[in-house]
Amino acid sequence: MTTKKNVTKKVASSRKKNVVIKSAPAKKAARRKIPTKKSEAKKVKPIPRNEVLPILKKDALGHLMVEKLLREGGFRGGISTDKEKLEAYSCDESIFSIKPQVVIEPKNAEDVKNAVSVIARETKHFPALSLTPRAAGTGLSGGSLTDSVVIDLCTHMHNLGEVHNVNGEVTITVEPGVMWRDMEAELKKHGAYVPSYTASKDICTVGGSVANNAAGPDSLRYGHCADWVQSMQVVLADGEEYTIKPLTYKNFQILQKKQNAYGRILREIFALIESNETTIRRAEPNTAKNTSGYPLWDVINGTVAEFKSGRATFDLTRLISGSQGTVGIVTSITMKTVPIPQNTRLVVVPVFNLSTASSAVLEALRHNPNNVEVFDALSFNLALKNPRFFKNRLSGLKYYETMLSMYSLYHIRWLQKTPEFTLLMTFEDKSDQVIKDILRLLKRVGAKGAREVVLEEEKEMFWQIRRASYTLSKLQDKNKRPAAFLEDMTVPPEHLSSFLSDIKRLLRKYNLEAAIHGHGGNGHFHFYPLIDFTKSGVGELIEKMSEEFFRTAVKYKGNICGEHNDGIIRTPFLDLMYSKKVLRLFEETERIFDPDDIFNPGKKVNPRFDIKSSLRKKNN
Ligand SMILES: Cc1cc2nc3c(=O)[nH]c(=O)nc-3n(C[C@H](O)[C@H](O)[C@H](O)COP(=O)(O)OP(=O)(O)OC[C@H]3O[C@@H](n4cnc5c(N)ncnc54)[C@H](O)[C@@H]3O)c2cc1C
What we know:
The protein is of the alpha+beta class. It has three domains: 4-155 and 570-580 and 593-614, Uridine Diphospho-n-acetylenolpyruvylglucosamine Reductase, domain 2 (2-Layer Sandwich), CATH 3.30.43.10; 163-339, Uridine Diphospho-n-acetylenolpyruvylglucosamine Reductase, domain 3, CATH 3.30.465.10; 344-563, FAD-linked oxidases, C-terminal domain (Vanillyl-alcohol Oxidase, Chain A, domain 3, 3-Layer(aba) Sandwich). 40% of the residues lie in helices and 14% in strands. It contains 25 helices and 18 strands. The longest helix has 18 residues, at 396-413. It is globular, with a radius of gyration of 25 Å. Residues 1-47 have low confidence and may be disordered. Flavin-adenine dinucleotide (FAD) binds at residues 92-93, 132-140, 143-144, 153, 176, 198-200, 204-205, 207-209, 211-212, 214-216, 324-325, 329-330, 470-471, 563-564, 600.
């Protein structure tokens, strides 16, 4: 077995003897314990789930030399091994804690190119060197954590860039570290917005959102971030920056002939898709939202034959969005927009009986809502108990109005009985009569309390609670943490009621309470069980529960990961969703982009961080 120790020895002795160090495919094979040749690979036993690949080594010397090597390579940004800084970068919003060896902060795309070139060259001598991009670090799956080098795209690369308006089509070009809220404020001046915004839009970046292929309330109608990328600049494994955008067959033919990394990637990804077209089409998940795996089915927006005859395009932005920094580093993004909706109306449905949840959502979906969102009784009751929480979020009179509407809803309308779930449905450009009809139809399917909310302060109250549900759940018990590991399962909405009742039964079985909220219209729920991370046995519990809960989602034709991506927590479980053949195609995809395995290893394919030993040990 390849261990930290014997790889160090091998590297040292091979250098003495002037022997060529293991090639990157061999390096990957060592991690995966499989041979590199395709013919041999067939005979190899697949890695059983949860068996993580051996970490080669922390490579003290390689990491000690990073600063010198980067400076020699022309890197101008920050480089730090300061203890406090490494500590700060060892966590994101996930349940994991992994300390990096070095944090670098590029000043611009040129610095990113330098960093990639240096690490790609040096990883041949120091196999554990890699680069993991990080933006605002609000990810919930551990995507931005590493035991090697973190490249922080936020510190300097946050230029807002320009807004373009061509015949009413508004686009904006931003550096990856731009905060989503800043992009939104800029676009507002032009009456436009990017509709795949997340509930975390005030604290996350555009680059991190695209790299996670994040989504939010309006994704019901408008899809994920990947749907709103027009083009992007990406530094690929050869250390060069390329413009990636949808290609016609004619353009593809020109570019794939180029003797550079982009040309090779175009050729090889196309060949992979062409020779596995049926397998890839069949692997596409059933749900409207998904961020598990690499979406090879989205690269061509039609069949291979349609692409070749000029009726479809080939678009690698679809693969790079949502790749969690495993295939390259995004240095600039041009986002498409839609006009800000003007005439929206909010319908609220209190669900006292779980069995009506599916029918109410399905009825709403028939009327083309912008969103159908949901929060549970626990979230509402936490809001009720913690009015001060909103003081920081709402200013002056708005705070008092919002709180007043929350108390009157609870005491007067709901007679102090919080519904099990509250559904929020937004409709755009609907007349009074249409809204009346929708309410009547909702009542007919059992949603007796359905009504339109007209007061602005009441609308604000509902959206505040929905957006803050996760943060509110942190207020339950300071000795525990709402744990993000079951937080992203998605099922087709027709299975919503049965799925939710199975999940509630499972939570009871484990004697755990979990705040529940999410995107009801997509059948997409966030469950955050309260866990004390200082206790022993938490890792075993998390692994066991993950498998059991994920199997439940798959049983209902759902997926394990709607928008928060695979990261450390879900990568070992992808075989619950995809066949071995498809998993091999994902590995091949990553290898084509990243032959030296320098970009964020261990995420999406080839799991490398053991869930149990990578867990955070604290509840904050
Ligand atoms: C309160 C709360 C609410 C949330 N609500 C939502 C929600 O509604 N919808 C949703 O989808 N998510 C949600 N999230 C999760 C998270 O906020 C989003 O996924 C967010 O878009 C991540 O952005 P970030 O800037 O924090 O990225 P990070 O967490 O720093 O990075 C995310 C991933 O992208 C990679 N990456 C970052 N920058 C680059 C780059 N330039 N090039 C290549 N790869 C890169 C990283 O390696 C990492 O794998 C929520 C989180 C919290 C804490």
